[in-house]
Design a protein that fits this description.
This protein is α/β, with parallel strands linked by helices. Helix content is 42%, strand content 17%. Bound molecules: ligand LARABZUK. The site of ligand LARABZUK has 20 residues, from strand 10 and helix 11. It catalyses: 1-(2-carboxyphenylamino)-1-deoxy-D-ribulose 5-phosphate + H(+) = (1S,2R)-1-C-(indol-3-yl)glycerol 3-phosphate + CO2 + H2O.
Length: 256
């Protein structure tokens, strides 16, 4: 499934490239105002920090929420205290788009993550051109040398990279990249199985000074408490926010 998602994202990027060339998207990326400092926004603090996700649908659950106005949802996330906002831009299974990211950029001034299946430099330039401050690199989807190339490009463009892992070996590969913001996704992206204890098993292996992000599977405040007590500095939440009143839900999460 992860290979299919990545292949689909690349086909869509190729389609966009026929309208906006690599040279042009690079020019647009370099013309942006500097990216926001996501490492500062997500730095460890006395309370857990939340990356709140704009998520309409997913391969594991199908449709989750209609989200006709992603900018309005993102504004309520920012007003509710989210430290960063994740926007799913994958079109086929998540029903997202780069246009969602652009709209959200106009509405909020917290750091924005382009959440997609990134495998090409073109997509990294696109992310910055659309106003992203962070991009996601999924270790399981990328060969190490290529992942390093994408990582280096993103950082040269002033962006922060959230490097996503799902095992101890993948965490080692994230560390080898020099990653400072490292996520453990509880969801196996091939089987969709959730393992909410995986973060806890890996937490001691994070390098000192890195920011620890627990991703996926949050149903309620007890799951936030569970990740926090296991050492998460940041928790990335999608479904639980888009299927509830986000302001009320965020307020309960941010008390932890
Ligand atoms: O959400 C999925 O079903 C999914 C399936 C395959 C690849 C990626 C997938 N989700 C992307 C994410 O990482 C999540 O949207 C994000 O971590 C939030 O998860 P949740 O809070 O469980 O909605």
């Amino acid at each position: 499934m992860l290979a299919d998602l990545t292949a689909g994202a690349l086909v869509d990027a190729q389609r966009r490239r026929e309208t906006v060339s690599l040279n042009e998207v690079e020019r647009l990326a370099l013309a942006q105002i500097p990216a926001l400092d996501a490492l500062a926004a997500l730095a460890p603090s006395e309370h857990v920090k939340i990356i709140a996700e704009v998520k309409r649908a997913s391969p594991s659950k199908g449709s989750l929420a209609s989200i006709v106005d992603p900018a309005a949802l993102a504004s309520s996330y920012a007003a509710g205290g989210a430290s960063a906002i994740s926007v799913l831009t994958e079109e086929r299974k998540f029903l997202g788009s780069l246009d969602d990211l652009r709209q959200v950029r106009q509405a909020v001034s917290v750091p924005l993550l382009r959440k997609d299946f990134m495998a090409e430099t073109y997509q990294v330039f696109e992310a910055r051109a659309a106003g992203a401050d962070l991009v996601l690199l999924i270790v399981a989807a990328l060969e190490q040398a290529h992942m390093q190339e994408l990582y280096d490009l993103a950082t040269q463009l002033g962006m922060t990279v959230l490097v996503e892992t799902h095992s101890g070996d993948e965490l080692e590969r994230a560390i080898d990249l020099g990653a400072q913001l490292i996520g453990v996704n509880a969801r196996n992206l091939s089987t969709f199985e959730l393992d909410r204890d995986l973060f806890e098993r890996l937490t001691d292996r994070f390098p000192s000074g890195s920011i620890r992000v627990a991703e996926s599977g949050v149903r309620n405040v007890d799951d936030i408490r569970h990740y926090r007590s296991a050492g998460a500095d940041v928790v990335l939440v999608g479904e639980a926010l888009v299927t509830s009143d986000p302001l009320v839900t965020l307020a309960s999460f941010l008390e932890i």
